[in-house]
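Thread title: Can someone regenerate the structure for this chain?

I was given the following input by a collaborator and told the matching structure tokens would be attached. They weren't. Posting the sequence so someone can regenerate them.
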Amino acid sequence: MAKKNKKKQQKQKPKEQELKQQKRLQNDFVAEDDGNLLTFGEHLEVFRHMLFRILGVAGVIAAVVFCFKGITWQLLLAPSEWDFCTYRWLETVMQSVGIDFHFNEFHVEMIATDLSSQFMTHITTAVYLGVLGASPYILYELFRFISPALYENEKRYSVHVAGIIYVLFLLGVLMSYFVLFPISFRFLGTYSVSSKVVSNITLDSYISTFVSLTLVMGVVFQLPMIAFIFGKMGIITAEMLSKYRKHALIVIMLVAAIITPPDLMTLIIVTIPLYFLYEISFWVLKHMKINSSFSKDENNIIT
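Best answer:
Regenerated them for you:
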């Protein structure tokens, strides 16, 4: 009889925990003023307030960026200069291995073809940088909005995932700013089919290329996170990535060749970090498999 009672108590414990979690979930959705569950309209009202807060923070940052015009555009136009820090760093690396390599000096003129193009480009660029600067707060507000519908372990899990996504996106932005965009601008801005044709790059073209490459690299650097999600879904495994490693290198080189100028050095510079992301994805899936097998062993020992 005592053994049967113990078994009943063990069966009842998971049910009691589930009921407690459900009560916590319901309490999280309870409004503080009237003690009732939030209706659909009230959820929309909370969402509307959240959007206003996000727009307010992004607007303040955009206004600050707009006011500090000198510093902002000095940073944005720095990759178009022939003495940009990336070129100096590459020359130093080449000279350290005994190769006498120097980038040729170049100058590319930028023009504005419309009367209001500089002003409008200034506004749109400030908005883009405002959203980029407010992205940590945006992630915080989104997490705060959905957190009442999550259990405690899901909240911790979501915070880690959001943090990793943001860090990877920033790494992609830095990769675009310091490597991909300056080298692409150097090649495309100085390329000429004839000495009779003079290249005059518009400011709109410069900023649109800058923003598009930045967003592309920010998305490309999400490869480890995408691999983690697909691994959780059972679509890919560490063994699969290990098996097709050579094929992946070829695909990565093709992608790097598409998004970069047709230059061997640029291809190598972009291929290395992309392949490094592939290896990180392999390590993530391998580590995830080890943890899952370890937890299964622990459950077998307990049972």
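The chain has twelve helices and two strands.
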